[in-house]
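User: Hello! My lab partner asked me to get a predicted holo structure for this protein. The small molecule is NAP, SMILES included with the sequence. Please write out the structure tokens.
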Amino acid sequence: MKITIPSPGFGTFKIPDDGTAEASVREALKLGYTHIDTAAVYANEVGVGRALAEWPREEVFLTSKLWNTDRGYDSALRAFDKSLSLLGTDYLDLYLIHWPANRKQFGDKADEINAESWKALERLYKDGRVRLIGLSNFEEHHIRALDWTAEIGPMVDQVELHPGFAREDLRSFCEARDIVVEAWSPLRRGRALDDPSLAAMAARYGKTPAQLIIRWCIEIGAVPLVKSTHPERIKENLEVFDFDLTEADRAAIDAFEGGRLFTDPDEAEF
Ligand SMILES: NC(=O)c1ccc[n+]([C@@H]2O[C@H](COP(=O)([O-])OP(=O)(O)OC[C@H]3O[C@@H](n4cnc5c(N)ncnc54)[C@H](OP(=O)(O)O)[C@@H]3O)[C@@H](O)[C@H]2O)c1
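Assistant: Hello! Below are the structure tokens for the protein in complex with NAP.
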């Protein structure tokens, strides 16, 4: 059975576990989000789990991610168990390797480390403890390197994607392999919202710049993950299903320039 990933997803990066994560996720679920994205390194799995506990588990698509210090077969399995226990659940809908081990840090060992982590995710998948397994911040060459040892292909790649960094090449590569692309920081962490041309375009649709961008992500076939701690914005970011972009507007956003804002996975030193 093909599993559909609900879109948009609710992102929780930088939402602290001081009651804010719990309150934001509770609000998101109440407003109609059915997809929550967290990660071990966000250190908010307890709060996310508390909000989830109030909801029928099967109605929520829940993602967490393997942090870099837990790469490798045994440590990845242990990290998965820890995430489940913090989240208070007995399965995940999606588990991702958060960042590839890269050559800059690990030289010739990088591919082997990624292969070992992937083996652990395959184990979890085969054991029915996670419904989908995937990657995050993997470029095409990292994904190709997994081909040597993978028994099961990745089902998702969660990457930085926003106006100015539309990832056409990676998206077509993933499409050909049936890998769903999820877009992190689709709003360029809020910075895209001040762009005057996006604001003018959004106004023509009677929409906000955030809604315009989220709609664009969906129309180009990516699953946007959007974070907010403000109830009115959480609501706004979900109201993206009552309009379509014209082809010209979609192409205009595709053509935005700017590039990557955050860390290049091949340069990461964390
Ligand atoms: N896999 C990875 O390596 C990776 C990396 C980064 C992010 N992610 C995932 O992707 C999610 C989204 O990325 P992100 O949090 O970096 O950035 P984002 O969703 O692009 O932007 C979030 C920022 O935009 C603001 N914002 C949200 N909706 C708004 C609206 N309607 N109007 C005005 N401002 C608005 C938020 O402020 P307020 O909160 O103050 O409303 C926040 O400052 C993360 O939360 C995380 O789940 C994954």
